[in-house]
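pasting input
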Amino acid sequence: MKDSPSEFRPARVAILGVGLLGGSVARAIRQSVPSVHVVGIVRCADKGQQWVDSGVVDAVTESIEQACGNVDVVVIATPVDTVAEKVIAVAKASNPDCLITDVGSTKRTIVKAVSQCPEAVAKFVAAHPIAGSEKTGAEHATADLFVGKVVVLTPSEQTPADLLERAEQFWRLTGGRIVTLSPQDHDTHLASVSHVPHLASSAVAKLVCEQSADLVGSGWTDITRVAAGDPAMWLAICQENRTAIEEQLRRLAGSIEEVRQWMHSRDDESLLRWLKEAKTIRDSF
Amino acid sequence: MKDSPSEFRPARVAILGVGLLGGSVARAIRQSVPSVHVVGIVRCADKGQQWVDSGVVDAVTESIEQACGNVDVVVIATPVDTVAEKVIAVAKASNPDCLITDVGSTKRTIVKAVSQCPEAVAKFVAAHPIAGSEKTGAEHATADLFVGKVVVLTPSEQTPADLLERAEQFWRLTGGRIVTLSPQDHDTHLASVSHVPHLASSAVAKLVCEQSADLVGSGWTDITRVAAGDPAMWLAICQENRTAIEEQLRRLAGSIEEVRQWMHSRDDESLLRWLKEAKTIRDSF
C-alpha cells in the first residue's frame, strides 16, 4: 500500500551531520514515527557511535552512498557553506523518489548552487527551521526543539509541487509550523531578524572592559547570549548572505548614529518616540 | 544599647517610590531584619494600600515629612532625573543620623547635584544595585532580587567614612555584593555595559518588519528583551549620562561599520577574529 500524501511516514531517514539540529531532527522524527530507522552520516563512525548509544540515531556510517541508497528522506545538517555540495552528492547516491532537505540559516546561495544539478533539483526542498541555541553538538539535541517553531521552506520555481508537499509533511512531523518564502525573501528577512542581530550582540559584548566586567546585569547577559555561538558557523552564514547582511548592517549603524545625534543635540522628543516605537514592537511578541 | 557598626539593623526604613526596585528593597530588608518597620512613600495612599495588603511594606504615606522624621534609612527609588531633589527634600525632613541612599542607574549628575546641599551630603551615599528587569511595578518585587548581585556605591570626596560603612552594611542586608567606584567611573562603565546595550537592543528590535515578524527566533527574543523596558525611565537615564552614552554609541557604531566594511571587502579573516574575540568575552561570564 502506497502512503497517501496526508500520511507520509518515512520508513528510513538519513541525517548528514549529527549536531544540535541534525540530532534534534533525528530525535523528533523517531518520537513521531516510532517505526522509523534513522541513520546518521558522520565523519568518524567510531566517534559517532556515541549518538547511537545515547539514542539520538539508530545507526551511524561514514558513507553517503551506503546511507542514502534506500532512504525516504535525507536531512543535510552541515554548515551552510557545505550544504549545496552535500545535496548534489546525496542526489547522485539516492533513489529517485528520495526527498532531500536541509536546516541551513541561509537559502539563496544554496538554492542557486543546487539549481545547476537537475538530479538534485528533482529531490531537494530547502528548509530552515527557526530554532537553535548558542549551544552546539548532538548532546544538546532534543525531540521538541522544533515544536511550535517556524520552519521556512524556500522552493525554487523548479521544485516539483508533490515534492514540496512531502517536505511540508516531513517537517510537520517535527512539530514545526510551515512558512513558504522565496530564497531571496528568506535571506533578506533573516538578515534583519537573525544575522545582523547576532553581529550586534557580538558588538555589544565587545564594549565590555576589564573594569566594567563586574557591572554587567541581566540585560547585558540576555543581549550577548548568542555572541557565544560558533564563530565559524556565523562566518559561513555571513559569507552566504553577504549582500542582505551588509544592507541591514547599514540600517543598524544608521539607527545608532541617529540616536547618537539626538543625544548630542538633546533632541529628547525624538529619542523618546524611538524608544516607545521599539517597545511597541517588542511588546507585540 | 547602640548598634555596633558590624551589626547595623535598622529599626525603621522608608522607601520613596514603591516600584520593582523599591519594593524589592523593602521585601529584602523585611526578610533579613524581621523586626524592621518599612513605610512606603507613595503618590497616592489609597492606591499604595495594595502594597501593604500584599506584604511589600508595613505602611504607606504620601508625606515625606511624616515618613522620614524618625527613620534610620531612606531609600530613594524614583526615576533618576528626580533622585537629587528627593535626596535634598528627605535630608531636610529626617533626623541627623539618617542614612539616605538610592537605586538610580546613573550617579554622576545625582552626586553633583546633591553636593550643593551640605545637609544632604552628610546623609547621602549614592547606590546602584545592578539588578532589575524589563518588568516594572512592585507586583514583581521579590526579596531575593539583589542576592549575589553587585551593588555599586559611589561616594563623593565629602561622604563621611562612617556613613559609607553604614551604607555598605545596609546594602549587604539585601544580599548584594558591594563595589565602590567614583560616580564618573560608574557612569562610564554603565554606559558600556547597560545604557548603550539597551539602545542597541531597541535598534535591533526596530530592524523587524511585518513580513519578518514570523521569523524571529530565540536569539532575537533574548537580544530585544530589554527593549520592552519603560521608555520614560530610559530617556531619563540617557539625559543623566549623556556624555558617556554618546561616547559608547560612537564606539558601537564604529564597530558595526567596521564589520560592514569587512563584509563588503570579503575580509573574512578579520571578521572571524572579531567573532572569536566576542565569543571569548561572552564565554568568560
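fyi Chain B touches chain A through 87 residues (CB under 8 Å).
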